Amino acid sequence: MLVCQPAKLSSKVRCPICGQDFLIYAENGVPAADTMSRRVIEHALRTHHTPHSTARSAHPGSTFHIPNWSGTQPFLASAAISDLLDGAI
Q1: Which of 48, 55, 59, 71 is 20 to 30 A off residue 7, Cα-Cα?
Q2: In this structure, are residues 27 and 1 in contact, taking their beta carbons and an 8 Å threshold?
Q3: Would you say residue 83 has pLDDT above 70?
Q4: Are 5 and 43 in contact (CB under 8 A)?
Q5: Residues 13, 29: Cα–Cα separation, whole Å
Q6: pLDDT above 70: residue 32
Q7: Read out DSSP for the chain?
Q8: Which residues have C-beta within 8 Å of that of residue 45, sequence separation ≥ 6?
Q9: Measured on CA atoms in the order 56, 60, 64, 70, is the torsion positive or negative?
Q10: With contact defined as beta carbons under 8 Å apart, do 51 and 37 qualify?
Q11: What is the mean pLDDT of the chain?
Q12: Taking a C-beta distance cutoff of 8 angstroms, is the pair 4, 24 a contact?
């Protein structure tokens, strides 16, 4: 589970609709900055908006939870190459 909180200063995580900055905290040691988590966070932030709303007020004003990615992990070419190289040595 990820905890999301509106930021008063600039942050690396922004709503793709309104540009509101957010601070992300991970629970249970889950990294909050990986690519899949960022996609899940951005999707959750998009769902706060209605089709015609771009206001920052669409987001909760206090801390809220965002579920983690629970699907299969994406294919990582670097991991496949690493396995290939390990087998060749």
Answers
A1: 71
A2: yes
A3: no
A4: no
A5: 19
A6: no
A7: -EEEEE-SS--SEE-TTT--EEEEEESTT--SSSHHHHHHHHHHHHHTS-TT---GGGS-SS-EEEPPP-SPPPP-HHHHHHHHHHHH-
A8: 4, 15, 16, 17, 20, 22, 59
A9: negative
A10: no
A11: 74
A12: yes
Which pair of tokens denotes residue 44? 């959750």
pLDDT, tens digit, 9 for 90 and up, residues 38-80 = 888 888 899 999 888 889 899 988 888 887 555 444 444 444 4
Backbone angles phi, psi at 6, to 5 degrees: -60, 140
Question: What percent of the chain has pLDDT above 70?
Answer: 62
Task: Domain count for the chain, please give it.
Answer: 1
Segments forming the whole domain that contains residue 9: 2-88
Amino acid making up residue 34? D
**Tokens for 85?**
């190289």
